[in-house]
Amino acid sequence: MSKNAATFIAKSTIKAADLEHRRKINFNIGKYNAAVPKGKLQFTDMQLVREKAKNVKWRAIENLDAYLELFERKITQNGAQVIWAETSDDALQSIAEICEATNCKTVVKSKSMVTEEIHLNAFLETKGIESIETDLGEYIQQLDGEPPYHIITPAMHKNKDDVAKLFHNKLGTPRNLTPEQLTLVARNNLRQKYIQAEVGITGANFILADIGGIAITENEGNARLSCAFPKTHIVIVGIEKVLPSVNDLALFWPLLSTYGTGQKVTVYNSVVTGPRKPTEKDGPDKMYVILLDNGRTNLLQDTKAREALYCIRCGACLNACPIYKNIGGHSYNTTYSGPIGKVITPHLKGIPQYKHLSNASSLCGSCTEVCPVRINLHELLLENRHTTVVNGHSSVSERMAWALWKQATLNRSILNAGNGKIKSLVINTVFKKWATHRTKLQFPTKSFNEQWREKEMAKIKQRNQ
């Protein structure tokens, strides 16, 4: 068992038994479940919308090289500089060089899963640069020294009392502040940082190939401030976020907001096509766009798993997943948790260390059902399991167990010999890990075959009497 698998089992074991944690998550996801159906009412044919969105992403991913080159050409013409980063180290080194050139001491950063993926904050700290999260949820998590818990709602596992206690301990505020007062505290602290920061770093929800722009959607306005106030704006975005045209935003912005929060559209929607022009009064003097691979081309070259690159990071699959709702986001020990994280992480970081994630699923199909771009997530989890076995990454004990199982299932006498008492003994006593967190299994004393045979023999005997 890998170290990551052992960590996953340990963390998930603790969280699965934490009833208070489960209460908080069910409460917050319950709000989501109530809001999303209302948001969907803006679409007259939801299935048609999802199918159209999937087709757009299919076209974008199948022609990814051409669209990325078009984007680079267009945004370069607008005055921005594009940097291609094959690995997280490449991206971090580029950011370090930009910060050094600007004599940067403070960075303001908007919500971005990609920056979490490359562990940007920890890296900037080693360079003596203060990096401030400006999204409220991310700001809370940064104060608490924790990574985001959820793709959309970073502090989903905390309630207002948890946040009030955290602000009291870290910022010296009174213990009994209301959510509104806590928000104002964060706002006052962050406003000063926007003014001080030499560099603003954002992600991007979408890359717009035809106009050479990046699209950002948000509810707080912090991303807009992060790319407008500082003199230098750095965008770091995964290469899969491309859309062929700016016109596609009319579909994807409402789709993302509906499945992400239940809104018809989020509060702030921005398209940034380059640094400030001579005729413009505000905006950064310089803009850099870092296009990050970091394992995404591993997915791209796999014709079956490639579909996972359609993901628009709405978080719907996390909210639907019974595993996620029981063990929480931090148990996965990865940047991307839930069903989509279980699909893509083994490809991004390596199957040997992360193969266990694809097995942490009930395969109920809820994730596929709620995905706005109709990614067949549960089928991709099965495909990951298949790839693990084909590539020889399954354990010796697992291979032996399935070999024995195959022989047994091909031989009726062997199956019948292993009666219910023997099966119960093996599962509940020999394989102790199975029974550790489950009620004991009690198999029928006779197999279906034996019961059927007895029933048929009884019929024959009755007819002969």
Q: Could you give a short description of this structure?
A:
Helices cover 55% and strands 10% of the residues. It is built from 24 helices and 10 strands. It is elongated and about 105 Å long.
Structure description:
With 465 residues, this protein is α/β, with parallel strands linked by helices. The protein folds into three domains: 1-41 and 308-394, no CATH class; 60-294, Rossmann fold, CATH 3.40.50; 397-464, no CATH class. Helix content is 55%, strand content 10%. It contains 24 helices and ten strands. The protein has helices spanning 3-16, 19-40, 46-62, 64-77, 88-101, 113-117, 120-126, 136-143, 160-171, 179-196, 222-228, 249-261, 296-301, 316-320, 322-327, 338-349, 351-354, 366-370, 377-390, 396-409, 412-417, 420-430, 432-436, 448-464; strands spanning 81-85, 106-109, 130-133, 199-202, 206-208, 213-218, 232-238, 242-243, 268-272, 286-292. The protein has a six-stranded parallel beta sheet with strand order 1-10-7-4-2-3, sandwiched between helices. A four-stranded mixed beta sheet has the order 8-5-6-9, with helices on both faces. A hairpin with a 4-residue loop joins strand 5 and strand 6. Helix 2 (19-40) runs antiparallel to helix 12 (249-261) and helix 16 (338-349) runs parallel beside helix 19 (377-390). The radius of gyration is 26 Å and the shape is elongated. It starts with a helix and ends with a helix.
